[in-house]
Task: inverse folding
């Protein structure tokens, strides 16, 4: 999941986000409900980026990225190349189901169940942050393989 040049610090941050995602997804319903408007907005952002990947529209996909992602990759082409290499199921999911978003201190987590073309299940957990002028944008995506029941 690490692209060339990723630091150990980023790897640990990704691991930490992964653990946070699981904790939030498995935690009892203690936080406030996400409004229907925010749920629709964040799901539209994630779906918009997935649609851009499906169309090989690098600038379109990059437009859904938060400033931290834009700064990290520098260009739409670099971003698209990373997704194609490191996140093939996100680049071309065979099937997907949006779960209910969860509120966290830094924004919203949107989990998406995905299947790759071979039928293997995955969980993609997106962190979205509300930007003052741009609305919700994707600030990270942690991808985890899911073991099938009975596997």
Result:
């Amino acid at each position: 999941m690490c692209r060339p040049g990723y630091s150990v610090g980023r790897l640990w941050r990704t691991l930490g986000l992964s653990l946070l995602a699981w904790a939030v997804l498995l935690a009892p319903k203690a936080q406030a409900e996400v409004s229907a408007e925010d749920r629709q907005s964040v799901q539209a952002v994630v779906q918009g980026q997935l649609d851009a990947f499906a169309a090989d529209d690098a600038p379109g996909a990059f437009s859904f990225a938060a400033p931290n992602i834009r700064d990290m990759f520098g260009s739409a082409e670099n971003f698209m190349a990373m997704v194609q290499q490191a996140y093939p199921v996100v680049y071309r999911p065979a099937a997907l189901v949006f779960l209910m978003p969860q509120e966290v201190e830094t924004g919203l987590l949107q989990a998406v169940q995905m299947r790759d073309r071979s039928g293997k299940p995955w969980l993609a957990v997106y962190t979205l942050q509300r930007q003052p002028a741009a609305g919700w944008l994707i600030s990270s995506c942690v991808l985890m393989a899911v073991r099938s029941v009975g596997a």
In short: Helices lie at 8-26, 36-54, 58-62, 67-73, 76-86, 88-91. DSSP finds six helices and five strands in the chain.
